[in-house]
Design a protein that fits this description.
Arc Repressor Mutant, subunit A; Dna Ligase, domain 1; 18% strand; binds zinc ion
């Protein structure tokens, strides 16, 4: 928990126990939606209200400690801010995996935006498809 508190302080945020718990919960899950986050945090600390969770999510997002990932056809999830990466989103089970992105590619995309007189702040890439587990399940079914 101390590492999370240090991280919060580095960002100039008050290192409350609730915020540290939020970061820990998000990191353990990888990518978590608000309902699962609420459930897991309340399991540890039953007095946390949904309002407090929303408020902290907003403040931590504003300081870019965490990032919101918006997805098609499913709830947005939150993750600890890392280097820019793509998300592999399974259309069947909804699993989300991180995929490293070539930095040159990102720079090229941003430069393209700038060339169109646009001021880019961040790039989000989601790749939708079928994960290996679901793919295997399908092949197994076909064999039967
Ligand atoms: Zn899947
Ligand atoms: Zn991610």
């Amino acid at each position: 928990m101390e590492t999370y508190k240090t991280l919060l302080k580095q960002k100039g945020l008050k290192a409350t126990g609730q915020r540290a718990l939020m970061l820990k919960t998000i990191e353990e899950d990888g990518h978590i939606d608000i309902d699962a986050l609420k459930e897991k945090m309340q399991a540890v600390s039953p007095n946390i209200s949904l309002n407090t969770i929303y408020l902290n999510l907003e403040q931590l997002s504003n300081e870019e400690v965490i990032s919101k990932v918006s997805l098609n056809n499913q709830k947005s999830v939150y993750e600890i801010t890392k280097h820019t990466h793509a998300h592999l989103v399974c259309k069947i089970c909804g699993s989300i995996e991180d995929e490293p992105v070539d930095l040159n590619l990102l720079t090229a995309m941003k430069e393209g935006a700038i060339a169109s007189s646009f001021k880019p702040s961040f790039v989000a890439v989601n790749i939708y498809g079928i994960c290996s587990r679901c793919e295997n399940n399908q092949t197994n079914k076909e064999k039967k």
